[in-house]
Structures are given as structure tokens and as C-alpha cells.
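User: Assemble these into one structure.

Assistant: Restating your components, then the assembled model:
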Amino acid sequence: MAIFSKETHFEMTSVSNSYYPDEPTAPKVVTDTIPGPKSQEAIRDLEGVFDSRAAYFVADYDKSIGNYIADVDGNMYLDMYAQIASIALGYNNPELIKAATSSEMVRALVNRPALGNFPGCDLREILARLLRLAPAGQDKVWSGLSGSDANELAFKAAFIYYRSKKRGYDKEFSAEELSSVMGNSAPGSPQLAVLSFKSAFHGRLFASGSATCSKPIHKLDFPSFPWPHADYPSYEYPLNDHTEVNRKEDDRCLAIVEEIIKSWHVPIAALIIEPIQSEGGDHHASSYFLQRLRDITLEHGVVYIIDEVQTGVGATGKFWCHEWANIQPPCDMVTFSKKFQSAGYFFHDPLFVPNKPYRQFNTWCGDPAHMIIAGAIGQEVIDKKLPDQCARVGDYLYTKLDALRAQYPHLMQRLRGRHRGTFIAWDLPDTETRDHMLKKLKLAGCNVGGCAERSVRLRPTLAFEEKHADVFVAALEHVLTEL
Amino acid sequence: MAIFSKETHFEMTSVSNSYYPDEPTAPKVVTDTIPGPKSQEAIRDLEGVFDSRAAYFVADYDKSIGNYIADVDGNMYLDMYAQIASIALGYNNPELIKAATSSEMVRALVNRPALGNFPGCDLREILARLLRLAPAGQDKVWSGLSGSDANELAFKAAFIYYRSKKRGYDKEFSAEELSSVMGNSAPGSPQLAVLSFKSAFHGRLFASGSATCSKPIHKLDFPSFPWPHADYPSYEYPLNDHTEVNRKEDDRCLAIVEEIIKSWHVPIAALIIEPIQSEGGDHHASSYFLQRLRDITLEHGVVYIIDEVQTGVGATGKFWCHEWANIQPPCDMVTFSKKFQSAGYFFHDPLFVPNKPYRQFNTWCGDPAHMIIAGAIGQEVIDKKLPDQCARVGDYLYTKLDALRAQYPHLMQRLRGRHRGTFIAWDLPDTETRDHMLKKLKLAGCNVGGCAERSVRLRPTLAFEEKHADVFVAALEHVLTEL
């Protein structure tokens, strides 16, 4: 029997549950192992046709609700991982069910349009719901299908922009460009690079994968573009106690960025950065760092792309994490996916629309079905002021975790995410201990993810409240005493 | 007033309409220009936030039905283009509406899972519906989000397979591989190539774009991998009158393929081919050619990928076009998207599952919502024997077009697609005349697409019947007399 049986309930510090009145008050774990026997059987059944070796367990989404995810063995976990940080509002959200059963959704699913050639008359309205959520300074959008896709579409826009600036926006292509490009050669297909950062995660296709630098397993055996990775600042925590050394760290990394831009063997057309490197270890970049990147990219004519695929949509206490930095002038593009359900990039400069049609184009040009869900998510985030709630609950959670850190400094190293909503992480001494903690947390009814080699990252939904934080902290405390 | 007013009806040779009883009996064009004034206004409105320069018109999907697409100006076109060949069953199909309003669809949309980590208990059943439609010889699937994505995921599987075969499937990576890959360098990130064909279209991301070789506008200003393109056979038509010269053309191109595999400056890990190059000009490959590619790829240890993104799902008279060639042993992977609505690749060899988890992986690993639609499409295609219908209607249409070709040989050059269902195309003398024909056809109520520089391609839905063929042939005849 696992640690927390059906009968085990944590004490609650708050009782109201406005968002999900039918949510459980505590997790429930009824199997000795996770995945439990029924999950294991279902995974074996999948294995023959679909690679499922990475499955944590097999979920029962009908029985999942709000912050709680059910599995086929009857376990019910408090979900602090939320589909790799991609569920914004919790499971079976009533407003999303309304959107999913709307007539516009049926239309979008059964008549999926080629948006570039045959936009529907509802597209403007569907887009308007996304655009009203655009980051400060951005007012246009191009849509894609996933985080990798969003970043690669942004790269395409950046490369076209970069070359158009050199060539002249309205200038025709040369005969040499037109012929060489068909052989994948310069000048039509120029050697240009995107600069990203060590530990970055921007996706797993070939260009996004070249910008990704988190783990070898993401990249091994694939050809890649010879693109550089600068150092991402690695701060001392708590931040307030180390302002001077952390500023030095920022400047050290900024110097590397500038050096690469000046000296890389092919021109750097764009720079892409996550305001918090998530998959790569929950490294936070300071506002100073993000602003200085704007200064440097402007100075050198480099396109500045901020990747908000994981950080976007409210969990950090702002709708978009980089809004904490109030970068001026705004960055050139902001990519999104995951919690937004719809993917793509926001931008503001009309020169990022290529000079001819069919340059940034594909069959579907996005997916109205998921855009409709995105619009409904955005409406809820606004109506319920969820970034504010994340800020409040995040501070509440951080304070409790900080107290645990004082008790267990060895097992809660470099606690990160103060005043960044529920975007909280810490390090364990090594991978083995981290994995052990995650396993124990699961048996204690909390589904939590790791990142990098030895970090734990918290990625609850925006419907995460103080009472959920209490459940998690109690479970964590229990696990810490056992480790 | 356009050519065909509300009052103009074509004569019908058949009257039954089992699939869409409420479908119009003829197109209706009520505007002098296409796009009409309301479409133009809606496009202008979109332009400010979403690049819509490629829009043909703004559609009203509520009013569209079966083979007919409505626009906001009140025009109703017979749709022979069908969202760039991506609508299988026609607009507002009743079976798809059932699927779109099912409880499993709501679940898939509001609780979109990270399929690799947290598959739902319904995933096996949803996948089973796809797998029963797998091409002959294939029984496993990995899912993605678009044609580009499907091809790049297949490339990843091919590169991993290729390197694993050299290294030993169960062998660990070397320290040098693990470190070099983080710098995008060999040996961890090896220089490997995918061989494709001139005029090929495999997508518009960076690796798929490197394999694409249809038009400069698809590729200009993007960095690419230095991957080669062999000649795709270009036959004399009608095929039956030119068997000898066409066989020679096959052999000429096969020799080029073999030469590239032997001599390219980096190893060729995979070969990808469309059984009919669609975007690139509706070039058909013979069964002999596709089989010989199997022989050659086996001999040289090259992975053989068939791209059925546009050709798949019945329109050619087989569910998968390459099934006409009965390739033995089967190719290694078959990629799909478009009419299938769901995207990904089918395969059969378990060694195409990487030796470790998280190598072929991403957040969503596909999209159950569109898989559910794919399953419903497949069920209809089977129940209604739609590939057989396409074969029958295609032959009917081809015969009529062949008669027109005899009358207008200059305007119907190289008529292609005999016995390939409704996958029919022909050439005009030049781009200008082709574009003029497409414009006239639109004003005659038929929405038709072009491909390559001077081809017209027909891509109706699978619900296309003899009566629709009659409407189209009458419109075409009218246009031909005017050109």
C-alpha cells in the first residue's frame, strides 16, 4: 500500500473551492507502484504500435478534474506537471467544455480550412481573441501548430527579414539567388545562424533542435545547423543576497553574446531566448539581462525572439513572463504554444510580413480548433485574474518552500522563482536523489516533473490555489523526512 | 455579372445524391470579380493582423456543403481544390459532425494530453482506428501535426535508425558523441543527408524544406542542409503510347539516384519520394520506378520513405497511392497528413523505434482531436468504398477530359492521371494562360488549383461523383472555348 491511502487526507488551510467545486480535497494513491498494474498493462498494449516507454501512467481524463489527474488504477494525483506545463486551467474546465461544444468548434474541426488561401469569415474574430492577449508591444500574429513549429516559423520570418533588410525590402531576387536556392546553396539559401543559449530548449525539429542545447538525448544522431550557444546566466540564490555577483554574471554572459555576434563564422540573423529556461533547468534571466539583449540585438541588427512556449499564459504572475522586464523597445517576436494550446508568434513590425505572399505559408497555417480553445483560455485568465492569483499563490507556496529549504538545505538547493508566480524550482544533489524524490512524490499523490539533471520544477495549472499548495507542501515535507 | 448566374444550371447526367442530399445541383457565381467585394473587405480587415495576401476568397463554412464551398459574397463553387487537397469527405460531413460532437472529442480538446508521458485510456482505441487504415505492410505509427512535421519526424527516425545500425542498436553513445552534439558538431550531430527529387515538395520547415525543390519562393533566404535532389521521371503521355521511352526515363533517373547515393559528399541516410509529385507539377512515378527504388535503397542501406501527405486517403483509387505499385518488401515509412487530418508516419520494423525513450519525443506527440476526425474519415472511406468510387468517377472524368484534350490539344497538354482516380492534371502552354484558365474557371463556379509553373491539378473530395464531373467538364469546356 502506498503512503497515502484513500483514507489519508491532508489538513487544509483553506476550504473554499470556487473554480472546481467537485475537485477532491486530497490526492489518493491506491497502488504500491506507479505506474500501477492496470497502467502497466495498458502501456504494454500500446507499446506494440506506439512508443510509450516515457509514460508515467495511463490517465483517465474523464475522471480528472481541476488540479487532479486520475489514472486507470484509481489513483488521483495533484498535478503539478500538468501535461509538461501545457494545461492552463485544469482538467475538464467548464468554460473550455463550452468552447469545445460550440458550433464554431464543430465547423473548425469538420471543415478544417487552409487559412492562408480560404480563411473563414469567423477567422478575424477568432484571431481577435488571441490578439487581445498579445504581449505588450505586439499586435500581429502568425499561427502554427506546436512550440517547435512556432519557433521555426519565427526563424523563417527572421531570416526573411534579415535578408530583406540587406537586399532592400522591395527588391527582386537575383537570377543567382533563384537558381542557387534550388540546390540548397548560397546566395539563395544563405548561411545564417540563430544564436541561442546553453541549456536552451526551443524544440526538437532540425532548426529548433539546433537552437536547443539542453540534453544530448534530444539531439544525438541528427544533422544540425552549426549555430552557436552563448552562456545563460547562472545566479546565486536567494537573488537578493547576491545582487552584485549576479550582475557580474549577467555582464559576463552579455559579453559572450556580443562576442559571438561579432565573430561567428556566419552572420547571426536572430537571437532566441527563454525568459526562464525551463526544460534546461529553470534558469531565470534578470530584467537587466533581457533588456541588455534588446540593446545589443538592436545595435547589431539581430532579430530578438523571446520564446514563451513554456513561460507564457500567466503562471509567472504576468500573462507573458518577459513582461516583468518591460523591455523597451519591445522584442521583435514572441513565440507561444503549450498552455495557450494554439501556437505561433506575435510580432509588431509590418516588415516581418515577407515582401511576397507564399513565403511564410503552408497548407493549414495554424489550427482554428485550438485557437478557439486558446481564446476561451484567455477569456478565463482575464475574467478570473489568474496571473494575479498565480502571483499570490506562488508567493504563498514559495514562502512555505523556503521554510522547508531552511530545514533541508541539502535537498532544496538554489530554490528559484520568488515573485514569479508558481514557476518554482530547486535542485537536488544529484540525478538519482532527484528522481527518487519525484518517485516518492508520486507515491504521495503529487505528480511533479523534473528538469535538467537534478532539478525539480513545479508547473501547476493557473487554477492552483493555496489549498493545493498546502497539499503539496505536506506531501513534500513527508518525502523530505524520508529521503 | 459573372458567366454563371443564379439561374444558370448545367445539365446533369445523373441525379441521385446519396451523400449530400442538400448539395446544390450547380455552382452559383453572383459577383463580377473573385474575390468579390465582401471577400475583399474581409481580406483587408485580416491583413492588419494576419498575412492574407494568398487568400482566394473568404469562405462561409456554415453554408458550404459536400463538394460546394460558399464565400461571403454569396458565391457557391464546386470545390476541385478542397483546401489544398486536404478535405476528404466534403464540407459539413454528417459523420464528421458526429465525431466532432462526441464526448471523446470534448475530452481530447479540453484535456489535451502529452501523449508520450500521460496517454489517456482511450488512446489505444483511437490509434487502432488509424492503424486499420495503415498502408499494406505497415502496422505501427508515430504521430505529428502537419505534413512538414510528419516528414521531419520520419527523418529523425531514419537518422536514428541509420546511426544505430552503424553503431549497434544497443550500444551506448561515446563520450565524444555526447559532448560534440551539444556544440552541433560531429560525431554526435553527424553530417547525413536525405535524398529527394527535383520538383519535390515535402514541407516548408528547415529539413523538410531542404528536401523540397519545387519553387524558389518556398526556400529563398532560409539556411538549408546541403542535401541532393535526383531527377524525377518525366514521362511522355499518354503513357500507353510511350512505354519504351518512359522506361528509359525511369532507368535514367534510377541511375542518377544510385550515383548520388554512391558519391554524395555525406552519407545518404534516407530517400523520400512522393508517388505523385503534386505541388511540383503532378508528376507520376511508375510502379517499376518505385519498386526499383526499394531495391536500390535496400542494396545501399538507405531508409525508404514514401510521402503520401497529398496522395493518401483514397483519391487515387487506392487508400494509399503507392499501393498501386505493390512494393516488395514494403518501404520503411509512409508519411501522412492533409486529407487524413491527423499527421505522422506509419512503419513496421521495430528497429525504427529508437533504442531509448525521449529520442523521438515532444510535448504533445500528436493531437488526439484530429486523430478522432481521422478515424471517422477512415470509417467512411471504408464503409462507402470511396477509393473505388474515386477510381470509377476518375475514369469517367478522365475520359471526358481526354475528349476535350483531342479538341484543344494546345490547352490540355500532357493530360495525366488515367486510372489514378480523380488525381488528374494537365499542362497549359505557359503560366499566364494557366492562371487565366484558373481565373475563368473560378468565375465559372469551379474552384481549381494549379501546380508547378503551368499545370492545372484536380483535387476534389472523395465525395465527388459523376454529376460533379459533368458540372466541371461543362465549365471547363466553356472556358476552353473562350481562351
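Chain A has two domains: 20-93+386-482, 103-383.
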